[in-house]
């Protein structure tokens, strides 16, 4: 399976450092990545000067871990099988595996690579775990999205305002039991 040439570089990039060129500016943290240049992370000001006509994605943070919006990454990459989350009303996925203690009993869904417990029946917890799965098993797909000729480079550069979310399966049935009536308090002693 072909893996995009920028993917491994993206997953190994350190984000949210202060930009060396624009360190004194207000929004100078490096949270952008250019799919055309495949280089280091850069800030908003570097984007407007050096990556003006390139495909750029913005990396965000959630609980000290790097995430990317599904609406941005699914335009250029097949992300099927990866657990997504809604954070600040946007659907996102994690770039790399997150450390977690061993999962407890009764966990129904686990990441095939790192064993992290998943909320829904997905195969991977992050884009990095899917890449490992593609390299070891070869049965998952991580190729560039095909058949997306209708998406212009401007949409990829600016990010579409319309989020397209894959359907989320319904939650599993609850195993908790309901009470058999209204609980009563013991009478007060006098």
Quick structural summary:
The protein is an alpha+beta fold and 190 residues long. About 12% of the residues have low confidence.
What does this entry look like structurally?
The protein is α+β, with helices and mostly antiparallel strands and 190 residues long. The protein is built from five helices and seven strands. It is 18% helix and 14% strand. The chain has a five-stranded antiparallel β-sheet. Strands 6-7 form a two-stranded antiparallel ribbon.
End-to-end C-alpha gap: 78 Å
According to DSSP, the number of beta strands is: 7
Shape: elongated
Average pLDDT confidence is 78
Count of helical regions: 5
Main sheet strand line-up: 1-2-3-5-4
Helix fraction bin: 10-25%
- Main β-sheet, in a few words? 5 strands, antiparallel
What structural class should be given to the helix and strand makeup? Answer: alpha+beta
Hey, roughly how much beta strand do the residues contain? 5-15%
Strand and helix order: HEHEEHEEEEHH
Rg (CA only): 21 Å
What oligomeric state do these chains adopt? single chain
The low-pLDDT segments are 144-166
